Amino acid sequence: xxxxxxxxxxxxxxxxxxxxxxxxxxxxxxxxxxxxxxxxxxxxxxxxxxxxxxxxxxxxxxxxxxxxxxxxxxxxxxxxxxxxxxxxxxxxxxxxxxxxxxxxxxxxxxxxxxxxxxxxxxxxxxxxxxxxxxxxxxxxx
Length: 141
Fold this sequence. Notes:
17% of the residues lie in helices and 33% in strands. It contains two helices and seven strands; from the N terminus they run E-E-E-H-E-E-E-H-E. A hairpin with a 5-residue loop joins strand 2 (15-21) and strand 3.
């Protein structure tokens, strides 16, 4: 598999730190990013969360919340794997540290997730919050 095998999206139960993405106008998403060469997936989650939101979490605080295996993606025509993490402990308050990529960053109550949300992320978030399926297969039908 090529493309984005090191993608990670940190999230938290009870609250979700979302950002509106200029690349997909008017859609909300969780913080996301690609692994650097030699970087463990937990390191990617910690780094990307801080780079995008200013929030700090320890790698050992991350728990796998959901895995998305997509057959195809815009940047990954041969498929991608997304690992969604949950953390119950972090420090800091969210801020938009990438204003050229995102229009805003804010906490959202998980009982009121915005309708305009990236589909795969919304599905993973809903499944995690409902203690449902831990793996999603997108486009393999």
